[in-house]
Amino acid sequence: MTVDVQQVGKYQGGSRWMSLGGIIGVLALAASMGGIALDPQKALYSYLIAFSYWAGIAFASLILLMIFHAFRAKWMVVIRRPLETMASAVGIFLILFIPIGMGMEHIYSWVHPSHDLGHEALHLLHNKAPYLNVKFFLVRTVVYFLIAIFLAQRFWGWSTKQDTSGDVDLTVSQRKLGAGGLPFIALVIS
To answer: Whose CA, among 42, 105, 108, 117, lies 20 to 30 Å from 97?
Structure first.
């Protein structure tokens, strides 16, 4: 028995679960902001760990997807859509980065170095100041996210377009972007 994919269409269920997940996410974010207001350092450390964990999954999905395309793996068609979905979530982490950007002085000692760090540590921080400064940190973080968002959305867009058109050239484009984009995503993730 064969099933025509174009005839079946997209899955339309799960909207109630998505709405419930969104509500829980907003409530959890509000609780995080309340924690940041009460004890900024502890709350921001916890927020940074959670942010790194979940953003890491999205970035790892993008890297894995790009590796599969770069190596022209044919078997990955089974897990391609979940990887694309997880990778396309990279964009939300640019917004979720805002509390980290606003609370940097509570997380990173190089933002406002204390004299308690000692002469050697202060000297090292002084030498690293061209790289470790607030403005350059924020700019490069935004640039890194924009690169990752571009790559994730391009893969998602080409893949969903291929679902309707059946165009094999889109697979070729994905493979080229996977191979060509890996050095850039390596810079982003490092």
So the answer is: 117
Task: Read off the pTM.
Answer: 0.81
**DSSP labels, 14-82:** -HHHHHHHHHHHHHHHHHHHHHHHH-HHHHHHHHHHHHHHHHHHHHHHHHHHHHHHHTT-STTHHHHHH
Element (H, E) at 86: helix 77-87
- List C-alpha distances in Å: 141 to 5, 67, 69, 181: 39, 23, 26, 17
Rounded CA separation 156/166 (Å) = 15
C-alpha to C-alpha distance for 87 and 65, rounded to whole angstroms: 8
Number of residues in the chain: 190
Tens digits of per-residue pLDDT, 11-24?
A: 677 888 989 999 99
**What values do phi and psi take at 150, rounded to 5?**
-60, -50
Phi then psi for residue 113, to 5 deg, are: -65, 135
Which residue is associated with the tokens 């502890």?
42
Q: Which two tokens stand for residue 155?
A: 């893969």
The number of CA neighbours under 13 Å toward the Cβ of 179 is: 9
